[in-house]
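Inverse folding, one chain.
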């Protein structure tokens, strides 16, 4: 699966976005180390803070099916049909992704690829609790 193909999966996932409050559709496509793709969209709520981002939807789908190792995630966001502008992951999603994904996780946006560590260079993790 190429970066472009994974990004297109994210764009497709954004079609199911439930974003009646922000009108901003986000899709994510998470590639596991065994080659499976788990997609997710943002799911908003009238109680705004209960909104779940696309990245966490995709990750929780995968983890709930027993898949916990990942290579890459593509993220596509737009307030219209144009997904050419980059939509970087929010801080909450970075923290949740970092629970399961190493700092080398590839993050694919419309403008290229990055590493999780580019967005979250010093991450809080389970080791800090010991
Ligand atoms: N959103 C995501 O799904 N992922 C992000 O990383 C950024 C923000 C969603 C949440 C909300 O439904 C909408 O985008 C506007 O913030």
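Residues assigned per position:
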């Amino acid at each position: 699966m190429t970066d472009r193909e994974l990004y297109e999966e994210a764009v497709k996932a954004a079609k199911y976005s439930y974003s009646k409050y922000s009108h901003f559709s986000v899709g994510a496509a998470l590639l596991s180390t065994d080659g499976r793709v788990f997609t997710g969209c943002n799911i908003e709520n009238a109680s705004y803070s209960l909104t779940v981002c696309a990245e966490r939807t995709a990750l929780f789908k995968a983890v709930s099916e027993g898949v916990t190792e990942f290579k890459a995630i593509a993220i596509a966001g737009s307030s219209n049909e144009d997904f050419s502008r980059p939509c970087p992951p929010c801080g909450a999603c970075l923290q949740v992704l970092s629970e399961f994904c190493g700092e080398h996780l590839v993050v694919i946006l419309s403008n290229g690829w990055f590493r999780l560590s580019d967005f979250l260079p010093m991450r809080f993790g389970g080791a800090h609790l010991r």
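The two ends are 38 Å apart (CA to CA). Strands lie at 25-32, 37-41, 70-78, 106-109, 112-115.
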